[in-house]
Specification:
The chain is of the alpha/beta class and about 950 residues long. It folds into three domains: about 280 residues, Aspartate Aminotransferase, domain 2 (3-Layer(aba) Sandwich); about 400 residues, Aspartate Aminotransferase, domain 2 (3-Layer(aba) Sandwich); about 170 residues, Aspartate Aminotransferase, domain 1. It has 29 helices and 25 strands. A seven-stranded mixed β-sheet has the order 2-8-7-6-5-3-4, sandwiched between helices. A seven-stranded mixed β-sheet has the order 16-22-21-20-19-17-18, with helices on both faces. A hairpin with a 6-residue loop joins strand 24 and strand 25. The protein binds pyridoxal-5'-phosphate. Pyridoxal-5'-phosphate (PLP) binds next to helix 19.
Amino acid sequence: MDNSQFVNRHVGISDSDQKQMLSTIGVASLDELIDQTIPSNIKLPAELDLPEAMTERELEEHIAELGSKNKIYTSYIGQGWYDTVTPAPIRRGVLENAVWYTSYTPYQAEISQGRLEALFNFQNVVTELSGMELTNCSLLDEATAGAEAVMMLYNERSRAKAKAGANVVFLDDQLFEPTKAVIRTRVLHQGMEIVSGDWRSFQFDERVFAAVIQYPDALGEVHDYRSFVEKAHAVDAQVAVAADLMSLVLLTPPAEWGADAVFGSTQRFGIPMYYGGPSAGYLAAGMKCKRTIPGRIIGVSKDVYGHPAYRLALQTREQHIRREKATSNICTAQALLATMAGFYAIYHGPDGLKRIAGRIHAYTGYIAEQLKLLGYTVCNTNFFDTLTVELPAKVSTESLRACAEECSVNLFYRRDGRVSLSLDETTMPSDLGVLLYIFSSALDTEGEKTIEEEISQTRQYFDSSFARQSSFLQHEVFNSYHTETELMRYIKRLERKDISLAHSMIPLGSCTMKLNAASELISLSMPQFGNIHPYAPADQTEGYSELIDSLKHYLGVITGLPGVTIQPNSGASGEYAGLRTIRTYLERNGKADRDVVILPASAHGTNPASAVQCGFQTVTINCDERGNVDMDDFMAKTEENKDRIAAMMITYPSTHGIFETNIVDLCRRIHDCGGQVYMDGANMNAQVGITNPGFIGADVCHLNLHKTFAIPHGGGGPGMGPICVAEHLIDCLPDHCQGHPGFDATQVAASPHGSAGIAAITYSYIRMLGYSGLRRATQVAILNANYMAALLKDTFGIVYTGATGRVGHELILECRNIKEASGIDEADIAKRLMDFGYHAPTLSFPVHGTLMVEPTESESKAELDRFVDVMNCIWKEIQEVVNGTADKTDNVLKNAPHPEYELVADEWNHSYPRSKACYPLDYLRSNKFWINVGRIDNGYGDRNLQPTFCACEVHL
Ligand SMILES: *Cc1c(COP(=O)(O)O)cnc(C)c1O
């Protein structure tokens, strides 16, 4: 094995392992296995045209070179992105720490207490700064959070309003442009109407159900919206407020002047701008919205022994349960970034935040005064950190811009000739001197300003009625970890409670928890990629452009669908963008009345939810006993809806882990009916380099770059869900407003290139593997799954295999017979796995009563064998219950996981020894993952969960 080749670092299986594994499976070669797995009519006839693989060392140099093509200017552009300081202990301890970035969404609460606590802290930061009662633990960005807010308020209309069909939402002109654009994209097909204008002159009437305003607004002005909110409430309309979290440190929180929902970005809480993303969006609301607020909510609950424990709350309203009835399609969010923002607030504490916000404000005030003295008109009366300036007649935008760019400074140049600037945490007195130099040189007056005078940190540049009176972040956690030592240990303390890829394989079917190589992640810590504003001029972002253009090209080659956008920030967001693209295409071709999306019963919950979000109806096709689309049902339902079919959504290989042999026929049939084929690309890890959606016949697919293409899961995000489309759909792809008004297209995210900052991970993955490495990764993913299937088929049994008895890149383990025989169910097995230091496979999806295992190509044979040993050990424990050697209720499975405090307690009340609970296999004696809570009882009920520290009285 040549270790200088990255493929041998990424793929866990050596040639000799492979030989043994193939013989276990019972095939002579890897090619034979692949031939038995993937239908021959969809195999690509030729190699993919991708660049030769780079070594890790070559890549590092290449990334540095790309980075050097991005120019770091001081950014005062604002409009939703601000320069910020990521505290070094958070960068090193969280962002660069595999335990934090490789962990999965905290569905298995007992081994996720660390990130659950971190996200709970984030919720507290948002609720306290906004003054609201309830928040989720992140949305994708500010603009999508705005759209989610509008939809939430639509769903929360009073009965009378709903009955009267009130469907108008008012958008104030001074919202950030992407917020307006994305709200427009998202709500028009929901039967809502948008009215835009100036909030001061807007007349509410009965048709209005909601209004959206911004605080401070896009020009930087802080308005007194009290009477506006009263007018809204008088007609039973609700008000959503976009608010900058940093400004709320100094300003009266929106909840205190009547807001019904508050949303925005938490980017400036320590997350680099990354050319637009990723960072965490937030949405806060009143308790009354608990059933309709989208996204995940963490609550404090109890474990079986009554110990406090965190878990996800209110899951029954999520799309994986409610499917087409869900109020949102959001699945992957921005957990890692929310975690970092929470730690930022913890590190600085309320006083530190006040100092930071106060300094930003004071410097902005100073600049405002100086600009006025120079003869500029500052349009703001009350402001926090943003000024909008009118230029005197003798100063042209061009000359000001030339002066600014000469000083490596970016301002926001409005189309109406005004200029806006936003100061931030990184602004220093010397920067103020440069700013004033720029504005005075543009006037041709004497420049060279050094700031000598003391800038008053106490003066307020807004009316005292706006000043925040309420305290915030008084809880101990925000007042204990202000030294680096304390913060470092707090981060470590939480980290120790979580299982991640740094501990063991995470065999989550459909989620593809593969290696996220350190060499793919280096750019995340480089200022050349971090400190770039998404609206920076093109000549400053050549590195990003080159990277993004190449990435799009490679993804087009890999999927066989040449039109690509990387704007969507998650898989579900990609689904929405893809369906919107189809919708635009149908509208432009006189087929706007096509409104049905066909999908199989096995579809992921986000599929039906996205279809409905896009204004379609869903028709569900049954699956047959082999797990394939039931052809009779498919033919009947496509016939019945022939003239109404807009699209079929299909996952391939199916969510049952099978390459259906008739996929090409399914696609053809949909085309014959006049519909488009949408392929959910979550399972691309079984296709890359061997087949592809374009070749199979799909028109659109999204990719989960955080699954197949090596972006880490981050405990529930960031994600990246680019869509790839066929030639005829390229013109219909989402576009972007670039921050300017008058835009009317189909923008789906706040930033032009979505989470551009993590695009380099996938780019690096593709560059280091090249065509043959990518293909090998796919082959080994299939090899590993079939190897495990061979070893587990005689005990648990495999629910679905393909026509030739093979599985794809994942396998579904049967647990339903076990339950009948022993009362042990799939959840007991999942919890028992924790005692062995493993994260459970995917539970009860897509088939109830089963576990779906996806080993991925990155795991070694030793790790696969260990997992099989563990499953065999659990199998034996189940047999003990079946044959009566173990008690039906007091057994290692029903009592799992066994928390440390129970294992070391003086008393031991079980019918089996401690050693059996704790060390069922020998390897555990040298590498035990200690769990600090017992089983968390989901039956304990959402009603008793607390979503914040202060919510002791309000229950969910
Ligand atoms: C993960 C997944 C999705 C949703 O992707 P997110 O990035 O979480 O929004 C959709 N479909 C399938 C089959 C998936 O596995």
